[in-house]
């Protein structure tokens, strides 16, 4: 548990000099990829848009922001991956914009 210095109070008779005051950067998890990956489809399959952290996005495609991912999803034959949050997030966002352009 991490607390602020304002939350700490000395304890009579207890040496707190061994208590870490900074988080060890070696114990932090690696940063999670952010954004979206647009991968061209294989063969006749269309483009697939993945969350950047999706295992299926590894090894190819282009990293893009949200607006570019939505643009890619609007192309004929494109679809959002259902194995990651792409379909859950991008499809409803795309539907919100229908009829407003």
Automatic annotation (TrEMBL):
Residues 1-39 are annotated as: Disordered. It holds the Pfam family DUF6233. This is Uncharacterized protein. It comes from Streptomyces agglomeratus.
């Amino acid at each position: 548990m991490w607390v602020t210095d304002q939350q700490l109070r000395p304890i009579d008779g207890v040496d707190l000099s061994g208590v870490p005051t900074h988080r060890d950067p070696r114990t932090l998890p690696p940063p999670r990829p952010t954004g979206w990956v647009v991968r061209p489809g294989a063969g006749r399959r269309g483009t697939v848009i993945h969350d950047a952290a999706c295992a299926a996005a590894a090894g190819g495609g282009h990293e893009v922001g949200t607006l570019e991912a939505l643009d890619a999803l609007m192309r004929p034959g494109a679809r959002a991956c259902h194995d990651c949050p792409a379909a859950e997030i991008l499809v409803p966002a795309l539907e919100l914009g229908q009829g407003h352009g």
